Amino acid sequence: MSEQSGFRIAPSRVVRPGLLFAALGLVMLATPGAQASDTLDRELLKNAPKIIRYLKDHGYKNVGVLKFRVQKGDEPVSDRVGTLNLDLAARLEVALVLTTDIKAPLGIIHDASAVAAKIPGANHLNEPGRRALLGARYPLAWGGEQVEPDAFLTGVAQFSPDLKTVAVSILAFGRDGGKLEKVADFTATTDPPMLTAAGESFVLTRGLFDGGQVKMTKVVEIALKVKAQQALNPIQSAEAPVALEVLYDGRRVPLEIRGGQALVREPQEGQKVTLVLRKTDATPDRYGIVLMVNGENTLYRERQSPPNCQKWILSPQDPAITVHGFQGDEGKAETFRVLSRAESAKDAMDYGSDVGTISLVVFREASGGGEPLALDEEAEDLAAVERAALPAKPPENLSALRHQLHQGSVNRGLIVQGQQIGAAIRRVEFRPDPTPVMSATITYYRP
C-alpha cells in the first residue's frame, strides 16, 4: 500500500490516514473465517433497513439520532462514558444515510444532539423532555433545509463485564407516542476503537504481536486488567512507548491513578494548558499519536475514530511534541480552554459533547507495502460508518452526500474560539498499523 502524507509542527509531525487505509482494516475483518455479523459497523448496516422500515411504517418523514447511553458491566448507565455516547449516534446516522432509498429517502437530521444540547428541558427519558425535543427545528444532512422532526432514534449500549461484547438496543419515539419503543437490538464484538471511545486504557508490548497482528480479544483482556487494577495504567507503565505530560502555566502537573483510571486536577480559570508527548522507547520505530481534548482531535478539531484522524508523529529524530492548542491550519492554532465535566442531575440527560478528558491513542508505523486495495461497495459503506463523520456543510442532495462519505472527504467538529497562536507545520509520510499499541484516557477532576 502506498504511504499517506501528513504534516509537521516544529519539531513535531502529523499525518492524515486516507480512506484506503481505513477501509483496509475493515476489509481484513471480512476475510474468510471472520464473523462479519459480529462487528459494530456491520451490525448497524445490517439493522439499518429494519430501522428504516419501522420509521416509514409509522409515517415518519424526518428523523434525528440522539446521543446514546452506555453501561459498562455493573456500572451505572451514563450519557458520557467518553466519546462513545455521541459516536454511536453518529455511526447510526451514517448507516441510515447509506441505506435509505435514494428515490424516496427518509429525511435524516444531521447531529441532532448538537441542537438538543441547547434546548432547555430536552430529555428523551421523560415525556416533557421529549415534547421539548420535538418542538425545535433541526438541519437535514443534505440540502440545507431546517425541519421539525417526526421522530427520534436513540439507544442503550451495554458492555459485558469482561468488555468483550456490547449489547445495543435501538429505541425510537415520535409525535404519536409517549414512550420509547424498541426498534432493533443486536450484540457486537468489542474492538480497540470502541474501548478507546469508552474511556478504557491499554498498552501492547511487542511480544503480543504474532506475524504483525494481535488478536482483538487480547487487547480487550489487557484493558480489563487495567480497569480491574491488575495491570498498570499506560500512563504509569514503563512499557508505554509514548508518555504524556500536562503543564499548567509551564509547570508539570502530576497525574494520579485511582481505581485504574488516570486523573489530573482541573486547571484554574485563565491558566495556560500545554500538552507534551514524548517517545520513551529506544527503538527506531515511528509512532503516530491521536491526541484528543474533550473528544476533539488537537489536529483540526476532528471528531472521528482515531484510526481515521490525523496524527502527530514521534521518531528518534523528533522524540517530543509540544502541543499548545488546537491546530487550525498550516499556520495557526488556538490555545486550549479545558473544562471539567459537571455532574448531571439525577434523571437529566446531557446531549453535549464529552468534556473534561484528554485521550491519546498511539499507532506504530506499518511495515511492508503493496498496492492499494480495490474497495467494493460494502467495504466503502463499512469505512464510512466507522469514520462516523458527516460534512459540516450539507451537500445539495443525498447522492452527493453518499459520494462524500465514500470518498472520506468529510470533517465534523465543534469549534470553540480561543486565542490564536502561530504554529508552523509541514507534511511528512506515515502509514499507521490499524491496531493501536496504546490507548489512555485522563479525566479532569475538582480537587
What keyword list fits this structure?
447 residues; alpha+beta; Rossmann fold; 2 domains; ten-stranded mixed β-sheet; 9 helices; 25 strands; globular; disordered N terminus
Topology overview:
Elements: E1 6-9, E2 12-15, H1 19-29, H2 40-57, E3 62-65, E4 69-72, H3 84-99, E5 107-108, H4 112-116, H5 127-134, E6 138-139, E7 146-147, E8 151-159, E9 165-174, E10 181-189, H6 192-197, E11 202-203, H7 216-227, E12 242-248, E13 251-253, E14 256-258, E15 261-265, E16 273-279, E17 287-293, E18 296-297, E19 311-314, E20 320-323, E21 325-327, E22 332-335, E23 357-364, H8 377-387, H9 398-407, E24 420-422, E25 438-445
Parallel strand pairs: 3-5, 3-8, 4-8, 15-25
Antiparallel strand pairs: 1-2, 2-19, 6-7, 8-9, 9-10, 11-25, 12-13, 12-16, 14-15, 16-20, 17-18, 17-19, 17-23, 21-22, 22-24, 23-25
Written overview of the protein:
- The chain is an alpha+beta fold and 447 residues long.
- The protein has two domains: 6-26 and 194-372 and 410-445, no CATH class; 32-191 and 375-407, ABC-type transport auxiliary lipoprotein component (Rossmann fold).
- It has helices at residues 19-29, 40-57, 84-99, 112-116, 127-134, 192-197, 216-227, 377-387, 398-407, and strands at 6-9, 12-15, 62-65, 69-72, 107-108, 138-139, 146-147, 151-159, 165-174, 181-189, 202-203, 242-248, 251-253, 256-258, 261-265, 273-279, 287-293, 296-297, 311-314, 320-323, 325-327, 332-335, 357-364, 420-422, 438-445.
- The strands form five sheets. Strands 1, 2, 11, 14, 15, 17, 18, 19, 23 and 25 form a ten-stranded mixed beta sheet that branches.
- α1 crosses α8, α2 packs across α3 and α2 crosses α8 (377-387).
- It is globular, with a radius of gyration of 21 Å.
- The model is unreliable at 1-37, 369-374 and 409-422 (pLDDT under 50).
